[in-house]
Structures are given as C-alpha cells and as structure tokens.
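Follow-up to my earlier ticket, as requested here are the two runs.
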Amino acid sequence: MDALENIMTRRSVRRFLDKPVSDRDLETILRAGMAGPSCVNARDWHFIVVRDREVLARMAAANGRPADPLKRAAVGILICGDLERAFKPAPDYWIIDGAIAGQNMCLAAYSLGIGSVWLGTYPQMERVKGQIDLFGLPDTAVPHSILAFGWPDESKEEPPGGPGEGPGVPGEGPGGPAKAPGRPEGPPPQMKKGEYEESRLHWDKW
C-alpha cells in the first residue's frame, strides 16, 4: 500500500478481535507517532500506552460512552501535551503537534492491518480532568486524545457509487472501515538516532 492509498482508505474501527498487538507492531506505531513534525521540533508530547484491561475500562469511563471501543481494544494510547517542551512564544501548538502524532499512529496501524479509532478528549474539560485524575498527571501534561487499537472485528462494504456516496458512520468517513493488506515483512522501520524517545513513553501508568 502506498502513502496515498493508506490515507484515502483508512477508516475508524470500533470493534476488535480478542487478539493482542505484538510488541514489534506497537513499537512501529509509536515510532510513527514520534516521526511526525512538531513546532520548532519541540516534540511536545507524552504517550501513555495501556494494555491493562482494567485501566482501559477506566479510561473509557472517564471519556464517556463514545470511548467504549477502549473496553475491547488490545491497546489504548493517551496522547498528552508536554507544556514544558511546548514552544514558549505560542505554547498552544502542542494541540496541533498531538494531532499530527495521533494521525501518524493511526495510519501506521492501518498499514499493519491493525484497526484504530480516535477518541476525542481535549478540549472537553470534563474528559481532560477525568484522564488527569485517573493517571495522576502533573500540571505540565495535558490529555489530548485517546487512540484505541486492535485487530478489526468488523467489515462494511463501500456503498453503491464508491467512496463519497452514502452516510457511513460518524467519525469513519463514507462507507465505513476498509481493510488493509496486513503487516509488511521485516523489522520496524528505523529512525534517525535520538528520534525514538523511550522517555516519552509511559506504560499503563504515568
């Protein structure tokens, strides 16, 4: 799958198989998130990576009913803005930087055959507070959005007329989710030295 096909055919997936996402695939997804551009290369994000089923359920409860896919996901990633790293003259660029990282991770997952759905958090402050309270976040870490990942347990055909016809499902685009060809062979793509920052990762907790 080339880049344009990936972008044009990705759809949100809300139902997942009871099947884990491998460490290798998860690392590839996280590397993709870190590979995106950010304002003055501030890289002003943290990723809280959750596999614990109880924590996933609590994340879903804190974000409300639209976040129910987390309860069945193999992995949830809470993207947080890092206000300490944010561009000081205009710190709100952290919001854009977090969105770029999230989109990269969704596209990377799709290229591996893994489904995902974006679950909005910021700027709905009751959701932001719920995630802050759940993880005990410091004042400098602001919840941005949650991504749920897993192997798809759903399929929907394109409506007659092809892409662009029919209502689809809110948040998915017309026609519902499409299927990716599956994981390419070989190790995860490598990044330039220093670009994969393990210090930006938090596993099941802050």
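Run two:
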Amino acid sequence: MAYTKLSLHEVAEEINDQFLLAKRYLDPIHEKMNMQEEMYRSYLDPNSYPHNARVFDPRTFRVVETVIPRMVANEPAGSFYPVEDGDEATTHILNALMKYDWRRAEMFPKQVNFIKSLLIFGTAFGRTHWDFREKDRKRMKPKKINGRLVWTPESKEIITVTEFDGPNFEVLNIYDCFPDPNATNIQNMRWFIYRMFKTVKELKAE
C-alpha cells in the first residue's frame, strides 16, 4: 500500500480535525462528568439549589474515600518466578528491580489519583513511558593555589546531571484526553489525543 507524505500543515490540519471530532463527541459526556465531580465534592450551586439551607449529602465523598484505601492497601505489582533451576538469581534481581522502579516513580500517590478517577468518573487514563530528564546544576570548581587544589564559592561551574532515567507512569487529566470516538477497544483505536498546555519558551526548548 502506497502512503502519501503529508506536509506539516496538512498533518496539523488532520490532527485538529480529529481533535474537533473527539471534542464534539465528548462535550456532553464532560458535562455529565462535571455533575459527577460536583457530587463527589458536595458542591451546591446557589443558582439552582431550591432550598435556603446549605445542607449537602456527603455520601458520594464518603464512599469514594472509604474504598480507595482498601484498593491501594497492597501494591498491585506482579512477581517473577523461576522456571528452571538457574533462574532463581535472575528472578530475585528482576523482583528487586521492579520494586525499585515502583518506588522511584512514586507510584503510590499516582495509584491513589488513578483509582479516584475510576471511582468518580467510571474510567481513568494514564500512560507508561521511559522518562529521561536532565538538569543544570552549579558546583564549586577547584582552583590551584600554591600547588594545592582549593574549592571556593567564587569559583563555580555549571554541569548537566541526569535527574531521572527510567520507566515512569503519569496519570492523565481525564478532561484533556480525547480518544477515537469510533473505537470499541484499545486495539482498534486509530488515535488518542492528549491536550497539553505549554508556554512558548517550553515549546522552543523542545
């Protein structure tokens, strides 16, 4: 099958058309989700609430906050098991590595937010990716004085250090997720759009 190479402008138009298609489909769903979130937060709209007393029923909040600790009591992480006699050492290493990556990615609060979205809205979105971040830091640079190396606050240099390098998980804002409305599962989903807000400076840096 021959594919036509599109220009950047045509690609941008195609992405925008897909975004508008998904947005038209999701706008009424987002309105219902707003009502679900207001129920969770026990929000009373003064414009539509028919009574003078500001009395609310915190049942939804209580149910959600009661269920979450039960669902996150244990880490939902799998385990590696040896198949042959020589696999025992490897499985110990893999299990330790998985626990290390789980804690380094700070998965517990992310897990709580993910499950909270599931309980309030009935669904949640997240992405697993390889996260590589670098950061510039200042450090003192040694100077040679009278044949000796001396570190002084006045002598500094900027170095680039690796801040994070490994698998990571991100809980996505459900209102910024626009999946293919014609998809019935993730296998036949043609595209998935996640809306992000960035400054011009951040875009130029990328």
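The only thing I checked on run two: The CA atoms of residues 127 and 170 lie 5 Å apart. Let me know what else you need.
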